[in-house]
Amino acid sequence: MIFNGFSIVYYFFLLFSFPSPETEVVVEKVDPYVKGYFMFPLSPGVQTSLSGSFGDLRVNHFHAGLDIRTGGAEGKSIYAAAEGYVSRIRVMNGGYGNALYITHPNGLTTVYGHLKEYASNIKKRVVAEQYAQETFVLDIYFEPTDLPVKKGELVAFSGNTGGSGGPHLHFEIRDQEENTLDPALFGFKEIKDNVAPRVEFVSLKCLSADARINGEFGTFDYPVTRTSSGQYVINRNIDVWGDIGVELYAYDKAETSPFRLGLKYIEVKNDNVSEYKFELGKLAFHNKIDMNLHTNYERMVEQNKKLHKGYFEEGNEMDFYTYNAKKGLIDLRDSKKHRIEIKLKDTFENTSFVHFSLNSNANQDKSINSELRGGETRKVDIRGPFMKIIRKKTDKSFYLVDGNFSKEIQPSYENATEQVFVINLKESYFSSFMDGQEIVPSPVSEEVSQRFNTVFSNSFEIDFKKVLYHPIYLNLEDANYELRLDKDVHPLRGRFDVKWKRPDKEEEKNKVYLIGGRRSRYVGGNWDNGIITFHPKELGTYGILKDETAPSITPRTLNASNLSFTIRDGLSGIKSFECHVDGKWVLLEYEYKNGLLWSEKLNNEPFKGEVVLKVTDNCDNEKIYKTAI
Ligand SMILES: [Zn+2]
């Protein structure tokens, strides 16, 4: 689909132009962003500072709300943004931690996350429910009459619970379809941003086998310079050819925050013609992981740099994009000079521009840099469907081989000492190549596509059916008791299914871990007859490790009014905990980031009798701590 849904519908009506007036669809354009309806939920009337805005690029999603700073402290008063009722309370170990949802008469719901605790009347209800269900983790919905609130009523205290990297309030506004809206569009005077988006560099990417940038195939970063008028330029001569993709390292800034905030709008124009446009709108939950296609996933994972693509990536189901017939890639095969303009906007319409020119030139400079390092005779680099093979310059032939089929190919380009072959695997998939007389297996073992979505080998079976955005080229191998599933450079829609035959391992306490990083990460898995089935969410190297060590329990406070502990587990991680005093279940709150457990009473009766805390890890190693008070 080249244009967005609106255009398609429009053309449909043009083509078939129904005569009946009943078919005319009148869409009522209601502006949901009513100014003044909501009050700021934290320190209203005081200029705020955000550590996150709506649309910040986060790993696996666009940020869906505002992160409101609380001066590094917890316990700040949180007020209901408008009248309504507490419609949902959710308590999670990770995610939003302690979260509160208030539904308002206008149909919108405000969400308050990472709370330290709820205001006393709400907390009473929550604790009663936690005792009734004998659980810390909770997700309960309320009727409008249960917990009504007035605008400005104290409802909670800010904290740092769940997947929060420091004390702050996560504030979100959702519509009835559970889409999140940009809270900053509701006219909060507390938010100030007169600063235009900032750009650090533009990255140009070759996205066809014939593409070149200054004589080479690859991805090249160009730092930008800020001119006296505040706009950005690239002061370099750039020769290009083929399909070129633009990416940029850019973010918003505000005078009230040292943080990098989100962008609302990006447009790439070539000689004043729009090639690609991104306009962030409401965020849905079902496709939020598609953000990994909006950004350059590989650079996000490997360099922790979140770039914006200036072209559309196949498979992205978010509807923020408009683009040319080449999905936003710029076709530069006309031997002309092109003026490129990138326009960037934040929520408050502060605007920046980047200007540079690209010279379309088929005969680019051959004095390109050599890529082989001392001693290397050949190197292979794979990015997406493109494989780049670099070898020392020679007269020897070069063949791509797949089964009985072979094809001689010529170097794509060369300098005085090296030759480079650029192969688009989508067009020329091969299993090995012949460099002179030497047969070399391809460093890609599998082409995984919607048609061929399951990979079988003697010792493993991997089903990618539900997680593919587009065909990917992977190297998958079972080597030295490690299952090497390429590298985490390919975005996937979710968890995929792996079956791994490991008859050498006893099933007891042995589980799958993502290994090779600084710490092994527990993945889990279920054994059946020497085969372990697991569901990883990323590519990488997996191994099997045995955890026979029970968690540790360190008591901190034990008296008639408070119980608190620190709990830790070295390898597989904490799965559950349970505390009883005098045989009765006691609610313990849990902060997983520092391993803290502390008690919360249902009523004011003193703790008395035998205290038993049981903590279990993911391999069912159990630690029991007993004492009497
Ligand atoms: Zn947040």
From TrEMBL:
List the molecular function annotations (GO) for this entry: metalloendopeptidase activity
- What CDD domains does the record tag this protein with? M23_peptidase
The UniProt entry, under SUPFAM superfamilies, shows: Duplicated hybrid motif
The highest taxon in the source lineage is Bacteria
Domain M23ase beta-sheet core: where? Answer: 62-130
Q: Which Pfam families match?
A: Peptidase_M23
- Which Gene3D superfamilies does the UniProt entry name for this protein? Glucose Permease (Domain IIA) (2.70.70.10)
Please state what the protein is called: M23ase beta-sheet core domain-containing protein
